[in-house]
Structure formats: structure tokens, C-alpha cells
Amino acid sequence: MNGRLLVRSAADLLEELNAVDESTRIEAKRATELGKSVMQTVIAFANEPGLDGGYLLLGADWSINEKGDTVYWAAGLPDPDKLQRDLATQCASMLNVALRPEMQVETVGGQSVLVVYVPEADVTHKPVYLKATGLPRGAYRRIGSSDQHCVDEDLWVLRGESQPSHGPDASLVPEARLEDFDPAAIAAYRRDRARINPQAEELAYGDEDMLEALGALRRIDGILQPTLAGMVLFGRPLALRRLLPMVRIDYIRVPGNEWVEDPENRFQSIDIRKPLLLALPQAEASIIDELPKGFRLPEGQLQSVQEPILPRKVIREALANAAMHRNYTLHSPSQIIRFSNRIEVRNVGYSLKEPAQLGEPGSRLRNPIIAAVLHDLHLAEAKGTGIRAMRRLATEAGLSSPEFHSDRRANEFKLTLFLHNLLTEDDHAWLRAFAGAGTNADDAKVLIYARETGAVDNSACRDFCGLDTLAASQVLRRLRDRGLLEKEGSGSRTYYVLSRPETTPWELPAQLPLNIDAESTQGAVPPYGDSRNPHMLESQSPPVQLVEIPALLRERIQAAGKKPRQTVVRELILALCSQRPCTAADLARLLGNRDPGELKRLHLKPLREAGQLILKYPETEKHPHQAYLTVREQSEDDPP
Asked: pLDDT tens for residues 220-250?
């Protein structure tokens, strides 16, 4: 210990844990003896940039109350002094760098607990990792309220480097040739660069020398070879199709506010497969052409001008952000999904910067070569200020602030741009009818957002209300306690949906599930949830519509028996989901009362990853009515 007093007491930590759905800087553990999870949290707190360390509360316990909240209390430790000595020894001997956490035994409610403060390690000592495991798996980061194994991309972030010396976009593309570069893209770079900086040094070079200077070509044994950045920025469309088939931008128009599969009303989609320097302007134009227009009178002018309600610079920065931070080593296109009330920009590659720090100065670039070119052409802000600019410009335009969602587990990033102010006259009328009086500005934003998108969580609330984690939790819980929101999930996966009238679990739905006949409903098991607990419905999902299962499929299900092989289960899932979208609960029931959670983990997730199943509501993965459907045969114009 360094002699500095602990900043917070055990009672204070318990109070915060009971006030929020999740905590980034506090981890409660029963920890009657040290285990791997304790050291993982210590490492994560020491490593995470900008977190300023974190607190371990050992000797706590918790349970879920009737409201769905996690309630924490002091449960006590059998020998807190020994636990303190053991932790100090492990921190000094098991890691590549000796850590000296501050520790203090306290008594809460007559029970002894151990408070441990782990300060953030100096950047020169990062990454901190378990010596026996090594890098990168022995290092951890604090992501939200969980400790995550590091991957290679994390290591240079922890070392404080603004970018790696050689990012993935500097890698060579096998079989790529100089002839695969598009002269139109090279000409576009020269034209736009000259407009911004006519004296730019690279403009005086020939094409090959200029491309090498930009990092689009690398000289290997005296021979110039295209890099990944070079192909992405300058590659011909046919070369991209041959070498990088998923490097494209899909612009998808969806009627309404939700992604709902409707065979009578097919999605409209534009596939943009061009070098990035030509694809970004086309994507920007496609978005702007369909945006509502507003009028303004420029200062000193007599004639008004028509401009899109969403500023061009916001759109341009959103597209550049996706292009710079996308993981091009994974085969999945970038998507722009145009709903009636918002635009979502999605790409593979989680944010290397913690979402709570987005908008703060400083950037973490996955593709430094691509980013440098976009900065030079003024397609993206420099030094990590683009997100701050998007927020400012949206606010000035009277729109809701953009929302950013990073999912490290799914390795995805989503940016949502809203196309109207959340509090229109229609919204006020709906609020009065739904919530009555006593609704403040933050409450109103949360309720409207939940109505528009289907669900709201702490992260989204922080984004559009400008609140911290604790304040956002208080708003969400207050609305839950008023009966306006219902809580789903727990911990870091907590989200809220608008309240709905409860369905009596013993009451049969008006339209019967797939495997129930009208004659067989006498004494039937409740179709959703656990019959022993009327509140444990499957997210209050609406019952599936009556669809007659083909006789052959019904026979296949019956012939599969109680313990079919994995391949048989997956074939049956695909067959059922080809009939209509099915929830995990539907499939679990149809396949012999299986466990929905196990079905998701063992079958639904792998089928999604293999591209054989898609979500009914891909824009809200935790949607309370989420269902699965098969991927139909698609043409070039269909969405992926």
C-alpha cells in the first residue's frame, strides 16, 4: 500500500451497486477464497485506459428482487486478513508487473468485507498480464461491467499508442496487382487533394510513387504490391469482387420503423461496390436524395436555400467513421439502413475506444492508412473530434443526438442518426395519453425513444440525455416503478421496453402455436414461459400465428426422438424458420420442450454466424419479440 486513504467506503460502494444496473468501476464478489475471476478483475482495472482504476468489494452477495433489480448486501468473509495477504502476494508475484492495490477491511451490518482499490497502471507498465498465460490472452480490459480477454488490437491501445506502427490495412492482398487499381479513383484523389491543398507534396509524384507514399503500395524485394488499404481505397469493382467480395456498402431502405420481413413488400437495396474514394460520395448522395429538406435564409442573402434536415457533414462523418474503423479482415459488408425515423450505419469491428469516451479528444484507429487518406481529403475530422462534431451539428439542427453502440462480443458497431426531434407535437400528445402528467424532459426522451426503437438501455439513455451511468439508471428505474417501462435482462444486458397489459399465462392465445391443434387444447401446457411462475413469460412475446406444419416436417420432428444429433436439430430449426419467423421459445417448444437458452447457444448462434439464420429485428438484437428466419435466395438487389 502507498499510504493513500481509500476514496470510498464499503457502504458507499454497496449503495451505488444497488442504484445502478451495472457498474464499470465496481465489482462485487463473494470471494470467500481467491479465484481466477478476482485476478482477472484486478488486471482489467489496472489496464483500462481512462478508467482511473476500480474497486473490488469482496464478501458481498446478491439476489434478484421482485422488480427484477439485483440487490447487494454484505455477506461477510471467514478470514478477511488471510484473503488480504493472499491477494497482495498474487498481485506481486503472478503478474508481469507487481501491483500494489490498496486494501481495507470494514464491517457492514456486522459482517466483515474487504474493499480493494486497484489504481490504473502507468502506461509504461501496460499491458498488465498473467505471466503464466502470456499475451494477449493473459491480459484483460474492463469493458462495461465485465472483464474481457485482450486481443492483438487491444495491446497497442493499452500501450497508449494513437495507432499501431503497422495496422491491418498495411497487410498485402494476395494475388492483387497494380492493374487492379481504378484510374478513376486515383484521379479523384488528385482532384480533391489539389482542391484542399494545391501544394501537397505527393501530387508532384507519378501514380506509383504517390500510391506508395500513401501506403496503398508496399515495396517487397523491390516489387510494388497492393496493400489492403490500397485495394479498399483505389481497387477496381471487379478486382474487389474477386479479391475482397464483402468490401462493399449496402444501402437498404426499410418501410416503417422496424425491420419486418414482408414477402409482399420487398426491401429496396443498393449495393455499392466501388473503391472507397468513389463509394463514399455515392453513399452520401443516396442518403441525402431521400432526406426531407428544410429551408433556411443564409445571413446577408435574399433567397432561401433548401438543405437536408440532417446536415451533410454529419452524414459524411458517419460514413467516414464506419470506413476507418471497420474490420476489413472479416467478410461482412457495411450497411446503411434507412428507416422512416432514423438511419443506422453498421459495420463489423467493435470500437477500440470505450463508448463512454467517444467524443473525447484522441482517436484509436484500426486502419491508420485509410484514416490518413480520409483526413487529407477532409472526409473525416482529425484527432478523434468527428463524433463531437456530429453531436454538435445534430443539436444545432434541432435533432436528437446520434447514438453509438459497440458490441465487443459480436464484434459490431452501430451508429444511429435520428431524423426528427424526439419531442414533436405528436410525441407530446402520445406522452400525455401514455404517461399522463409529471413527465420531465429526460423521461419524455426515454419513452419516445423506446416507442421508436422498441427498447432502451443505459447506454442509449446516456447518449441522448447526456447523463452519466448512475443518473441514467435512476431515470430508467423511475419509469419502471411508474409502470411505464418493463425491465428485461440483467447486469450489462439490462434493457427496458414500454409496458404492455400482462397476458394471463394460462389463457390460450387467440391464434394457436404451430404444434397445437384446436382439438388438443384441453389442459394444454401454457405456450409461453414457466407454468409455475406467471411472471416468467418469454419476454411477453406475442403468440405465433397459426401456420400448419407440413405433414412431412411434423413426421421429421417426431422421428428425431428426444436426443437427435446436432445436424438433425439444426435441419429442423431451418425447416421451421422457413415457414415463418420463430422465437427461441417457439423452437424450444416445437422441438420437445428444450431449454431456449441452450438452443440459442448451441444452435441458433452458430446458424446465424454461418449466415443461415437472420434476426427479424436486426437493429435491436435484444428486442423483446426477437425471432429467427431463414435466409432466402437473394438477388444482387436484395439486402444481405
From this structure: 999 999 999 999 999 999 999 999 999 999 9
In a domain, 552, yes or no: yes
What average pLDDT does this structure show over 540-545? 37
Domain assignment present for residue 77? The answer is: yes
Domain that holds residue 578: 518-630
- Do 367 and 228 have their domain in common? yes
User: And the C-alpha cell for 469?
Assistant: 451511468
Residue at grid coordinates 464484434: 411
At 52 the three-state DSSP class reads coil
Same domain flag for 35 and 112:
yes
Q: How far is CA 143 from the centre of its chain?
A: 12
| Chain centre to alpha carbon of residue 255 | 23
In a domain, 254, yes or no: yes
Say which CATH number the domain at 478 has: 1.10.10.10
DSSP string, 8-51: S-HHHHHHHHTTSS--SSEEEE--SS--HHHHHHHHHHHHSTTS
Secondary structure E strands in 368-441 = 403-407, 412-418
Alpha helices in 467-518 (DSSP H): 469-481
Q: How far is CA 630 from CA 97, 347, 555, in A?
A: 50, 21, 21
Residue 503 per-residue DSSP state: P
Is there a contact between 449 and 460 (Cβ–Cβ < 8 Å)?
A: yes
Distance CA 142, CA 121 (A): 13
Q: To the nearest 10°, the Cα dihedral for 483, 485, 490, 494?
A: -160
For residue 32, the model assigns a pLDDT of 75
Contact of 596 with 538, CB cutoff 8 Å: yes
Measured CA to CA, the distance from residue 297 to residue 283 in angstroms comes to 27
Q: Which of 106, 141, 158 is the last residue of a domain?
A: 158
- The percent helix, strand, coil of the chain (3-state, each to 5) is 35, 20, 45
> For residues 456 and 493, is the Cβ–Cβ distance under 8 A?
no
Residues 363 and 454 placed together within one structural domain of the fold = no
Are the CB atoms for 413 and 405 separated by under 8 Å? yes
Residue that has been written with the C-alpha cell 432466402 in this structure: 632
Q: Is there a single domain that holds both residue 267 and residue 389?
A: yes
Q: Which of 442, 378, 391, 443 is nearest to 418 (CA)?
A: 391
224 — phi, psi (to 5°)? -80, 130
Q: In this structure, what C-alpha cell is assigned to residue 446?
A: 426515454
For 556, the 3-state DSSP assignment is: helix
Half-sphere exposure of 134 (CA within 13 A, CB side): 0
Pair 472, 603 in one domain: no
- Joined together, the cell numbers standing for residue 610 give 454461418
The pLDDT assigned to 215 comes to 94
pLDDT tens digits, 566-597: 899 999 999 998 888 888 888 888 887 788 88
Last residue of a domain, one of 112, 129, 158: 158
Element (H, E) at 174: none
Cβ(14)–Cβ(5) below 8 Å: no
Asked if residue 429 is part of any domain, the answer here is no
Q: Which of 150, 122, 117, 125 is nearest to 136 (CA)?
A: 150
Residues 90 and 114 reside in one and the same domain = yes
For residue 408, give the CATH number of its domain: 3.30.565.60
Q: Are residues 494 and 532 in the same domain?
A: no
Count of the separate structural domains present in the chain: 4
Asked whether residue 146 falls in the same domain as residue 169, the answer is: no
Strand partners, 260: none
